[in-house]
Amino acid sequence: MAERTRIIEGTWNCTSCETRNILARHRSCPSCNNPREETGQESEFDFGEVDDTTGKSLREGVTDEKALSAANAGADWFCDYCSASNRGDSPICRNCRAERSSTSRALAEEPEEPIEAPRSRRPPPAPPPSAQGSGRKWLYVGLSLLTVFGSCMYWGSRTHGVTGQVTTTEWTRTVHRETFQRVSREGWRSDLSVRSSRMPVNGTGEVAGVDNIRSCFPRQRGTRQVADGTERVCTTKTRQEQCGTTEKCTRKKMSNGYMKETCRDVAKYCSKSYQDCDMRTRYRSEPIYDVSCTYDTFVWQPVDKKVESDRDCAPRWPALEPGPLDRLRREEKYAVRIGYEDGDTKEHVHEPRSETEFLAWKKGQSVPLQVNNFGSAQIVAGDAVR
After folding, report:
1. Residue 143 within any structural domain of the chain
2. Taking the CA of residue 292 as centre, how many other CA atoms within 13 Å lie in the half-sphere pointing to its CB?
3. Phi-psi category of residue 59: left, alpha or beta, with phi > 0 → left and psi -120 to 50 → alpha
4. Does residue 45 belong to any structural domain of this protein?
5. What is the pLDDT of residues 346-384, one digit of tens each?
C-alpha cells in the first residue's frame, strides 16, 4: 500500500536563559537571541510522544513552505569561529558571516528509531524476568541449601566413644499350630482340574488337590474393548489469520531539528478458533463370561498358638503338641538392652538374629559404643567386652 510521509518539527532548550521548547526553525533563542550551538545539548531535539501501537508521532506535521525548506536543506553545520548552527545548504554563517570550511562539523545523522519509541504516552511494560538470571538465583539457593544440609550431616555423623552396660536380655518365642483342613473355594471352570489330595506326614509332603467340582453357573469374568464403527472427534485449536490492516510508522531524524515520519498499512493478524476433526475408531465395552464353580480343596488353617517370654535367662520353646494333620510354625525374637551415659541416661536396643548370638550376651557386661551427634549408637566390633 502507498506510504504516507510527514515532517515532524523538533524543539530545543536554550542553555543561556533556560527557555524551553523552542521550535527547530528558530536558530537563535527568541528570548536572549543566543544562537543555537552544538554544546550544552542545545542541538539535541525533542520530537514529542508517539503512539505505542503504531509508532506514529502525536505531533502535527509541518506544512508551511519555509519549515519544509529548512527540513530538506540537509544536516546542520556549526561555524568554526562562533559555533552557531546553520542550514545545511548555507555556505556562510548566518551569525558571523564566516564561510563554511572543510573542518566545519555537521550534526551527525542518527539511525532510524524503532516503532516503540522511548517517549510514549504510557511507560513501557517491564521486561520479563531473565530466565538465565532466575535460573542462576535458584542455583544459588539450591547450593546454599545443599551446603547447609551437608554441614548438618557432617556434624551429625561425627562420633565419640562411650562404654555401656547390658541392663537386661529379653526373648519371646511363639509356636503356631496349623492343621490341614478341607475347605470350599470358588474358581473358574477353565482353571480347574481334578487332582487328588495328599495328607501331610509330620507336617510336610501335603498336596491340596481339587475335588467335588459343583454348582457351576455362567458369570461375568471381565470386559474387553471391541471396535464398534467410527466416530468424528474434534478438538478446538487456534491459528493466526489476517483480520484487516493496521498502521505502522518509522521515523528518521534529519540532523537539522526535523524528523521524517513514514507510515504504511501492514497486515494485522488475530487469533481465531477452529475445529480440527478426524475420524477415529469407536470402541465399546463387551462383557466376558466364564463358568464359575465351587470346589473342595485342603489348606493350612491356624488353630492355636502359645507364646512364652522371659528375661535374663536362656530361651525355651512353649510346649504345644501337634496332631496327625498338624504342623508347628515357630517364631523367635530377641532383644539386648544396653544403658549408657551421654549427657543423660540413654538406652540402645540390640536385636540378635539367632539364639547362639543371644546367649553370648550377659547382664552386666560392658559394651563399647560409638554414638553420633544425632544420638544414634552402634556397638563396636559387634561383641560385648567383659
Report:
1. yes
2. 9
3. beta
4. no
5. 999 999 999 999 999 999 999 999 999 888 999 997 544
